[in-house]
Amino acid sequence: ILAPQMSPIHFEFLETAFRANGYNLVILPPSGGAEVDEGLKYVNNDACYPSILVVGQILAALKSGEHRLDSVSVLITQTGGGCRATNYIGFIRKALADAGYAHIPVISLSASGMEKNPGFKLTLRLLRSAIIAVMYGDLFMKLILRTRPYEAAPGSVERLRARFSERCMANVADGRLASFNLNMAAIVDAFDRIELAGGARKPRVGLVGEILVKFHPGANNNAIALVESEGAEAVMPDLMGFLLYSAHNANFKRRYLDGSLASAVISNLVIKAIERCARAMNAKLGASERFSASHSIKSLADGASEILSLGNTTGEGWLLTAEMLQLIREGASNIICMQPFACLPNHVTGKGMIKELKRRYPQANIVAVDYDPGASEVNQLNRIKLMLSVAFKAAAGGAGDGGDGGEAPALGEGIGDGEGAGESTGDGAAGGRGRGGARGGSRGGARGSARGGRKSPLAGARASSEVFRQKRYDT
C-alpha cells in the first residue's frame, strides 16, 4: 500500500503502526521538483499545490519500477470537509486512469467512513498504535527543534534520537500506553541532559499553515532548515492538534448546523481519550527544564473564538489562527504562515487574521508565504529573511544595550496610539534603552526612541525604513 509523504518525523512511526497490524504500508520518501513535474502532467496547475504534489509522488513511485503493479494499492486520507483533503482522491483516480493504471485501487482512510474499502479496516489496535505513533512524532519534533539549534557537538541531537528509535518502534508495534510513558520519560530526561552551547536564546520562529505545506520539507523548500541555518529556533505546532481540531468541529456543527448529537458525543469521547493518552507526556514536558507542554484543544478553541468564528472549519480553519495566537502568547512572535497559492480557507484564517493579531499584539512579526509549482523560491527566501531580520533586531533590542535602565513594559503597552507605534518603538521599550520606553505613553515612547537614536544615528532611519516596508506590504 503506497501512501504519500507528509511529515517524515511522524510518518516513519505510522508506517510501523500499519505494518504491525497486517498492512504492508510503504510511505513514499520526501519529494522534490521531479514529483511536482510529474503531478503537473495529470493535475491542472490551478489546483492546490498539495494535490499536485501528492499525485506526483504516487505516479512517480508507480513509474519507478520498484513496485509490482498487479499487487499495489494507494492510501489517501479524507477528512470529510470541503478542502482538498476530502476531494483529491478524485484527482488521484483520474491521474491513475490517465496514466494507464486504472486497475490500481485507491483506499480512503477516513474516520467518517466516507467510502467502504473491502479488505481494509480500522481496528481498535491499529488506532491505538497510530495514536502512539503520532505522539512519538510530536514528542521528537518538539525536543529536536528546541535543542538542535544549540547543540554543543554537531549531530549530537540526531544521534540521541536514533538511540531511542528502535525502542520506540517496538512500542508503536505493540500499542502499549504504559510502555510509551516509560519511554517518553526517559527520552525527555535524556534531552534535558544533552549538552547545549551557552549564550542567549535565539529568536523563535513559529511555522504554521496548511498541514502538508507546513510539515513536508519538499513542499516548503526546507523551511525549518532555512530558519535554523539563519541562526533562529523553529517552533512547530503538534500534528495531533489537527486531529483534535477535526474532532472538535463536531460541536459547532451540532450546535449551529446539521451535525448529529451522536457525532458530537463520539467526537468528544475521542478527544478525551487522546488527551488522556497524552496527559503523562504533557506533565513530564511541563516539569522539564527546557520544554513546554501542549495545550488542550479546548483552550486553543477558546483563544481563537475571541478573534473569529469556530464555524471556520474548512482546511486548517480556526486552528491556524489559534496556533498563531498561542505562539505569540508563548513568546514565539515571529511567524511564517505558509499556504498553497490561492488556498481560500487559509487565506481567510491565516493571512486574513494577521492584521487583527498585530493590532492585539504589536510585537507580532508575521509573514505570509505562498507555495506553488510556479512560485519563485528566491521570493519566498527573501520574504522569510526579511522577517528574520526584523526578528533579530527585536532580539537585540530585547537584550538591552545600555541606556538609563528602568523597567520596560511588555511590547505594545504604554507606547502610544500613533500609527506604527508598536513596530517603531516596541523594540526600544522592550530593551529599556531610554526612560521614555519604560515610562510608556506616546511622549515617553518618542523620548526613548530619540535617546536610542543618539547612540546609533542610523538605527532610527533603519527602523523607520523597515516599518515603512512592512506597512507597504501589509497594505
Give structural notes.
The protein is of the alpha/beta class and 475 residues long. Helix content is 57%, strand content 7%. The protein contains 21 helices and eight strands. The strands form three sheets. A four-stranded parallel sheet has the order 6-5-7-8, with helices on both faces. α1 links the parallel β1 and β2 (26-27). α5 packs antiparallel against α6 (156-174). The N and C termini lie far apart (48 Å). The relative contact order is 0.08. Mean pLDDT is 84; it is low at 400-461.
Could you tell me the radius of gyration in angstroms?
A: 24 Å
Mean pLDDT, to the nearest integer, reads 84
Order of helices and strands: EHEHHEHEHHHEHHEHHHHHEHHEHHHHH
Counting DSSP H or I runs of 4 or more residues, the number of helices is 21
User: Given the C-alpha coordinates, what overall shape results?
Assistant: globular
Total strand segments: 8
| Low-confidence spans | 400-461
Share of residues in helices: 55-70%
* SS-based class: alpha/beta
Main sheet overview: 4 strands, parallel
State the end-to-end CA separation.
Answer: 48 Å
Strand content: 5-15%
Strand order of the largest sheet: 6-5-7-8
